[in-house]
Specification:
It contains 1 helix and 8 strands. It is mainly beta and 164 residues long. The strands form 2 sheets. The chain has a 5-stranded antiparallel β-sheet, covered by helices on one side. A 3-stranded antiparallel β-sheet has the order 1-2-8. A hairpin with a 2-residue loop joins β1 and β2. The longest helix has 13 residues. The protein is globular, with a radius of gyration of 15 Å.
Amino acid sequence: MPTLSAHGLTVAPPNGWDAQIYRRDPDPLPDPRAPETLAPFGGAESVPPIAHVANFGLPPVRGDFGGGAVELMESGAIFISLLEHPVEEAATALFAGQAIPWPFAGDDFSPDTLQRGIAGQAGLQRFFVAEGRPFCLYVVIGSHRLRNVLVREVNAVLASVTFA
């Protein structure tokens, strides 16, 4: 897949991966299949961007943290969500002083970190600031048992991410 760049984010996923950088509809209709979608924002330009990257086909309807996608994952699957937060949150305790957190080790992944527990899967969540912009990184891997193998692929994708 070629390098994607939009909304001040760039990612270069490996060939065969699916990826999208987008902004949510500022006033979406509720989607019962994506219950974790955040509340509406006030206007399209105020909606922070989201990057989703996966080594499987992303479904067209999915939540910010992968609802609708993670249920499709097999043991070797990887789902990465990078969600920007409003810039004024960069100074809050959640983000303050937190630099880009990768690379990761296999033991950084835990079944207890998942938004919705799915047997066998593991995840991680980190909050950080890059170029003055606050982000939440949420990663799900299809197999906790294979975490030491899958983390190498996660780190390779994340190493390609740049922030403007």
